[in-house]
Structures are given as structure tokens and as C-alpha cells.
Amino acid sequence: MSSIDRKPHKLKAEKSLSIPRHLIFFDTETKQEKINDSTIRQRLRLGWGVYYSRTHGRHLETMEWQEFTMTLP
């Protein structure tokens, strides 16, 4: 529910098509720890992240992978 009182309207078409060149993706696995009846803590087991940059102009495609397994106490 929006706090702005606005009448429904049709969205205007985009005048240009913009596709991101730089993307970051994450995938994680966690272990659940029950703290009490209303709280569950998610502890990081492992994770992977990838930075991806699409080819543009003279710049080549870039893909950098990073594994992470540490979590803050």
C-alpha cells in the first residue's frame, strides 16, 4: 500500500534501451539456529559471488569469482 495518493495511469514507453554492463551475483548456503520461539539466526556456511562485466567497446568480458566462508560472530 503506497502512502502516495495517485490515480492509476499507463506507464510510458522507454525512449532508450539500457542494459547493465556490470553485474554482481551471490549464492549462499546458511544453517539455521533457533534462538527462541520467535527468532532464528542464519549462520553462513559458504557462499560464492561473481562480478561480471559485459563486453563493450575495447573492453573485454570480465568474470571474477570469489568464495567466502567466514561470518561475523
Can I get a quick summary?
This protein has 73 residues and is an all-beta fold.
Bin the helical content.
under 10%
Order of helices and strands: EEE
Q: Report the portion of residues in β strands.
A: over 45%
Q: How many individual helices? A: 0
Question: How would the global form be characterised?
Answer: flat
What are the low-pLDDT stretches, counting only 5+ consecutive residues below 50? Answer: none
Can you count the beta strands?
Answer: 3
Q: What's the rounded overall pLDDT mean? A: 88
Give me the secondary-structure category: mainly beta
Oligomer: single chain
Rg over C-alpha atoms, rounded to the nearest angstrom = 21 Å
Alpha-carbon distance between the two ends: 37 Å
* Major beta sheet, strand line-up: 1-2-3
Textual characterization of the structure:
The structure is a single chain. This protein is mainly β and 73 residues long. The protein has a domain at 22-68. Helix content is 0%, strand content 51%. A hairpin with a 2-residue loop joins strand 1 (22-36) and strand 2. The chain is flat and about 50 Å long.
List the defining traits of the structure above.
73 residues; three-stranded antiparallel beta sheet; single chain; 51% strand; mainly beta
Layout of helices and strands:
Layout lengths: L21 E15 L2 E15 L8 E7 L5
